[in-house]
Amino acid sequence: MTEAECSSMESERHITISYLRDLALYNDVGTIRIGEIEKMNHTKVTEFIILGFYEFPEMQPLLFLLFLIIYLMCLTGNLLIIFTVCSDSHLHSPMFFFLCNLSFLEICYVTVTVPKLLAVLIAQNKTISFKQCMIQMYLFLVCADVEFYLLTAMAYDRYVAICKPLYYTIIMNKKVSIILAIVSWTIAFLIPVSYVTLISQSFFCSSNKINNLFCDATALMSLSCSRTYVIETLTYIEGSLLGFTPLILTIISYVYIISAILKMHSAKGRQKAFSTCSSHLTVVLLFYGTSFGVYMRPKSAYSMELNKLLTVVYITVIPLLNPLIYSLRNKELKETLWKTTRRNIFFQNY
């Protein structure tokens, strides 16, 4: 072996040792964190594009008209219930107090999501700023949480009315009703803060196109190139505690309610008791069915087409049906609504 070859081998050995030393240092300290390099390479998203029903370009005007009609009907129906309950002293009871809260909530639901969807459909104004997107997502989650708690409070109200009728005015007095409503709204405004904060700090590198009807959390998480393990874990923990807990309380209330109804000797009494809670039970089934279908499905069962369909039901159909269900199923409210409508027509003609 020549002197030149020995020198070359010695040089290669030094390079190899130096490389291994650097590699060991890299592994020990965890330098040049991959996540930080990725963050440096990602450009910060300043706006998102809401695709909406991009699959049906020729149907955009028709879809705009459909959602505009639904939106106006939602506003009209829920405002009519609020006006009717507030104007008639006979309806100043805890049940109708919670119904007013629910109607106001449905107005908030559609107002948070539908106006932007209408702009997407008719004006092709598909862009939404990052800040506006986070605000829309936060307000939507607030509305969802409020509905969980209000429906639970309404179930408890029906439980007391049917199972403890002699103590109803004592247990469900005005003060208790107001406290239940305030607690429901307050908790709902606080819960999504951590969730939205985590998503807002994520990096979106693959795309800024949201394949949904609004800034939905699941759609944003699919765009994120950051690790979403913490967000997903928080979703299932909050969903289990804050979603299933009200559901379990509602189910327990209805177990007692149904048991009390079956023990009634009078068929007329059973029918009257059931009619007072059937509308609430229908709304509970609709709301929980669609919300769990949208947010608690496993990834293996995820379908964007199904998700959009459930979202339409979630943000428009339920707010539209709620006033119809309560007004048609509740005899007292239906009669008062009819009297109010006739009175307004009479004054207009006069």
Helix and strand layout, with pairings?
Blueprint: H1 3-29, H2 34-41, E1 47-50, H3 60-87, H4 94-122, E2 127-129, H5 130-163, H6 168-171, H7 174-190, H8 192-200, E3 209-210, H9 217-223, H10 229-262, H11 267-295, H12 304-329, H13 331-349
Helix pairs in contact: 3-4, 3-12, 3-13, 4-5, 4-12, 5-7, 5-8, 5-10, 5-11, 10-11, 11-12, 12-13
Family: Belongs to the G-protein coupled receptor 1 family.
InterPro entries: GPCR_Rhodpsn, GPCR_Rhodpsn_7TM, Olfact_rcpt, Olfactory_GPCR
GO molecular function: G protein-coupled receptor activity; olfactory receptor activity
CATH class: Mainly Alpha
The oligomeric state is single chain
Number of structural domains: 1
Note the gap between the termini. 119 Å
The total of beta strands comes to 3
Uncertain parts: 3-41
**Assigned CATH architecture:** Up-down Bundle
* Class derived from helix and strand content: mainly alpha
Shape annotation: globular
The CATH topology name reads: Rhopdopsin 7-helix transmembrane proteins
Mean pLDDT: 79
Instruction: Tell me the helix content.
Output: over 70%
* Order of neighbouring strands in the sheet with most strands: 2-1-3
What is the CATH homologous superfamily assignment?
Rhodopsin 7-helix transmembrane proteins
Please summarize the sheet with the most strands: 3 strands, mixed
Task: Count every helix, treating DSSP H or I runs of 4 or more residues as helices.
Answer: 13
